[in-house]
Amino acid sequence: MSVHFIQWNTSHDMLKEVNRLYDAAGTFDCIEKGDLVAVKLHVGELGNPYHVQPFFVHDIVRRVKEAGGKPFLTDSTTYYCAQRNNGYDHTVTALMHGFGMAPFIVADGLRGENARLVKTKGILKEVEVAGVIAEADAMIVVSHNKGHELSGFGGAIKNLGMGCTSQAGKLRQHRTIGLEIDTSKCIGCGKCKDACSMHLPEIIEGKARNTSPLCMRCPMCSEACPTGAIKLTDKNNLCRALASAAYGVLSTFRKGKVSYVSFAKDITQYCDCLPNPGERVMKDVGIFASNSPVSIDAAFLGMIDYKIFNDAYSVDCMLQVKEAKNLGIEGDTAPKINRIS
Description:
The protein is α/β, with parallel strands linked by helices.
């Protein structure tokens, strides 16, 4: 499947240019009159300066309406304790970041409870898809390409797999990563417990232990450990889980009802989930549009030196793309790119 692309060039009106991209790619062809259309985006953690600019989303809403759809903005709550952990605070964050151009409906409910358990393929056998996503008629997946400490990078596949699942679905994916504590190095200082937002590690007989099923394998405890006693293992499993969850999410839509737009601009060291996403690590690339998450992510990775992310996070960025393809999600790992000039 081909990917349409327009280079980021601020000597041009990028809002006009992106509409040429949408027309060439048929971005809104997935919409039928009367469809309830989820515009899936990441509103950014409160204070994050690099999420997709609201005027682009405003224009997507306009185009959905012109196509006869009924657009609403949506994103799911976070499992970890942050500003978007519940529906109320998530909605407030969306409004503060400028996403008030259409109704914002939290995808998995007030406390992450609204989900549909669906069967999937791969490393996961089932996954909890956010209820609002599962009930939508069509979806436009609006992604911001950037780095990610556990999956190497975040794009369309991550926006599907992690962003369209409930808190339980997020935990299920993260638990595919392992956690090991080398007690010979542990000094029992308790800094891991202090760093954990849920205070899950325990100090027992002067040594750290974390056997809680609630642990999502985030890197906070390992980063806080002064002796390097805590490490995450099998990090590549999360890339496989993202692909597996993405397959489950797409199974709730009829074929041809999901379209993708990815902004490779302000490509940061870390994810939009942080208020402090780190430095921009490469030049702005452009905007991609496709009807395949595999193709659109592969197109982005093919245009950059993603070894920057691989080396930084010890994962293979391309793995989630290849895994999604292997599971049967349509697309190409080396897609044809149609440049809009």
